[in-house]
UniProtKB/TrEMBL annotation:
Residues noted as binding substrate in the record, renumbered to the chain: T32, G33, S34, T35, D92, G93, A94, D95, K115, G116, G117, G118, K142
Annotated organism of origin: Halopenitus malekzadehii
Reaction equations catalysed: aldehydo-D-ribose 5-phosphate = D-ribulose 5-phosphate
Protein name: Ribose-5-phosphate isomerase A
The UniProt record lists the keyword Coiled coil: no
Pathway info: Carbohydrate degradation; pentose phosphate pathway; D-ribose 5-phosphate from D-ribulose 5-phosphate (non-oxidative stage): step 1/1
InterPro entries registered for this protein in UniProt: NagB/RpiA_transferase-like, Ribose5P_isomerase_typA_subgr, Ribose5P_isomerase_type_A
Domain of life: Archaea
């Protein structure tokens, strides 16, 4: 899994802060990555103390983490079916989140982020979008005023060359993500490949999101436009909550 920037203590503060927003009886979307894992552990401790929640994992790793920490899990199709309760709250990490205005001051949460460092963005987007509230948990290295990180694009294996050509035509530079510990590409939980696409500064994330979604063979991409309701930024002293 690609990890970036901040310290584990910063990530822990962000994750634990968001976990405090979970209430008794909630169905909770459980994000993927090292920061979201801190939230899952904190929710697990609350479950030990009597909190009644059910978790909807966004990946194989999130499911394993939830089970290791005693959180009962439930499938998206069960809770989001016609008679299901839906998802009350989702807590997820990010690789970059737009938070600051031109001068570096926090103006308002745009709710737009890049995800997919853990190659889980397709399922994360489904769960995060289905939730009534999405809380994003990050360390300060993820905060920006303009998105510049590579955009992960999950593609059907057969389509990775044609999709790469279409991404180049759209002004991006795609690189097939390789596994760190073994020879070969990263394969997602859905059996697909990931193209990490550099676009330099992304001036219009909504427009780029539409362009990427329209490419044949693209399952989903890591641009989450206008999705976050709150951003919890953990730093060395505490947590700033932006809503
Ligand atoms: C997984 C993700 C992660 O949430 C994102 O990569 C952040 O990870 P971390 O908290 O480990 O830095 O999008 O697909």
């Amino acid at each position: 899994m690609k990890t970036t920037g901040g310290t584990d203590a910063q990530k822990r503060r962000a994750g634990e802060s968001a976990a405090e927003a979970v209430s008794d009886g909630d169905v909770v979307g459980l994000g993927t990555g090292s920061t979201a894992a801190h939230a899952i552990r904190a929710i697990g401790r609350a479950v030990d103390a009597g909190l009644d929640v059910r978790g909807v994992p966004t990946s194989f790793d999130a499911r394993a983490c939830a089970r290791d920490h005693g959180i009962p899990t439930v499938g998206l199709d069960t809770v989001c079916g016609p008679d299901g309760p839906g998802i009350d709250i989702a807590i997820d990490g990010a690789d970059q989140v737009v938070l600051t205005g031109e001068g570096g001051d926090v103006e308002e949460v745009s709710g737009t982020l890049i995800k997919g460092g853990g190659a889980a963005h397709a399922r994360e987007k489904v769960v995060d979008a289905a939730a009534d509230r999405l809380l994003v948990v990050v360390d300060p290295s993820k905060v920006t005023n303009v998105l510049t990180a590579d955009v992960p694009v999950e593609v059907l294996p057969e389509a990775h060359t044609t999709a790469a050509t279409a991404i180049r035509d759209a002004g991006g530079e795609p690189t097939l993500r390789r596994a760190e510990r073994k020879d070969g590409p990263v394969v997602t939980d859905n059996g697909n490949l990931v193209l990490d696409c550099s676009f330099d500064a992304i001036a219009d994330p909504g427009r780029l999101a539409g362009t990427l979604s329209a490419i044949p063979g693209v399952l989903d991409h890591g641009l989450f436009v206008d999705m976050a309701d709150e951003v919890h930024v953990g730093d060395d002293d505490g947590v700033a909550i932006h809503e």
